[in-house]
Write a structure and sequence with these properties.
The chain has 100 residues and is α+β, with helices and mostly antiparallel strands. The protein has one domain (4-84): Alpha-Beta Plaits. 34% of the residues lie in helices and 22% in strands. It is built from 3 helices and 4 strands; from the N terminus they run E-E-H-E-H-E-H. A hairpin with a 3-residue loop joins strand 1 (4-5) and strand 2 (9-17). The longest helix has 14 residues, at 68-81. The radius of gyration is 13 Å and the shape is globular. The two termini are 13 Å apart.
């Protein structure tokens, strides 16, 4: 998946993941629901602990713009149905005007 393509639309962030496991889990869930998803890490190799202090967000789960609303709804339903969602709140969802 490319980040910007005039023919395919635009990738937008649907969730700010706290760690890699959360990002992979949500990506796999979305793909099981028929929504292509990508992960965009914000981590800097070799600076693991230092980078986490500067930026507590591990990375983003990205979907095509036209799938944003459906993906967000599915994620909220998924998190409501499992105890893994206890730490995730609406704060993990980025504003819609992100230019990623």
């Amino acid at each position: 998946m490319t980040e910007n393509s005039s023919d395919e639309g635009k990738l937008v962030s649907v969730l700010e993941a706290r760690d890699e496991l959360e990002a992979i889990t949500i990506q796999a869930f979305l793909e099981s629901q028929g929504i292509n998803a990508a992960i965009r890490s914000r981590q800097i190799p070799m600076y693991d602990g230092i980078a986490r202090v500067w930026n507590p967000v591990w990375g983003y789960v990205m979907v095509m713009d036209e799938n944003h609303d459906r993906a967000e709804k599915l994620i909220m339903e998924y998190l409501d149905s499992c105890s893994a969602g206890e730490g995730i709140t609406e704060e993990n969802f980025p504003e819609e005007d992100t230019d990623t």
